[in-house]
Amino acid sequence: MIDTAPTYDAWAQTYDIFNSSNKNGDIVSVEERFLLPVLSAIIPGRAADFACGTGRWATTLSGMGWDIAITDQSRNMLSIAREKLKYFPPFLVQQCDLESSPSDLRGLDLAICSFALCHCKNITSAVQNMAISLRPGGLLVLSDVHPCIQSKWGGDNHIEIESVRYPMPGWHWSVETYRKAMFDSGVAELAVIEHDAIIDEERRLGVLMIVGQKSASAAVS
Ligand SMILES: C[S@@+](CC[C@H](N)C(=O)[O-])C[C@H]1O[C@@H](n2cnc3c(N)ncnc32)[C@H](O)[C@@H]1O
Predict the structure, then answer these.
(1) Contact of 66 with 44, CB cutoff 8 Å
(2) Is pLDDT larger for residue 52 or for residue 26?
């Protein structure tokens, strides 16, 4: 396992600026274009934004009327998310590693995890740790950098933040890996969406989104 907490701790202060720039904006806006209508169609209840980063989905869902919990491995990302939610405080804020242990959450109506599973080498364990927090019938929404991009990154990919190199691995090189992790977690697949986001002629980013529903008879309960 490669620890990306230092990467995101270092990136936290400038992450939103990067995300709203052309460098990464397209991949996020493609994801939002597909997922916003899906999420708007669900009656709000209790939800968790796993690996919430600076709280992009947590703030959106909170604005839609959801009660929100947030978790992330990075203390600095989590504290920015918490600050954004100060007028609608989350019912749980937890610094935890998605891959190594389940959160304290149970009985959720919705769990979302965006652009984070790419870094979790043991994706099955990470998805199981989220699935356990759902009530039977609860929805799991996963989105990520498309596996075809992750295969270009590989496990040894790095980014530079203020002249320091930090790990940015992409471990999952097939869509099947995500589908199997969901299946193995007792979550039935409802929809798989694969979409390109073209940044410029040389850079082509893709997004993978999967929506699932925890089975009533799920082994992970
Ligand atoms: C690219 S950011 C995405 C943030 C947010 N979900 C979004 O879509 O705007 C990835 C986030 O996942 C978190 N993350 C990566 N691996 C994790 C793990 N194993 N456990 C918990 N959080 C993790 C990072 O700390 C970071 O905040």
Answers:
(1) yes
(2) 52
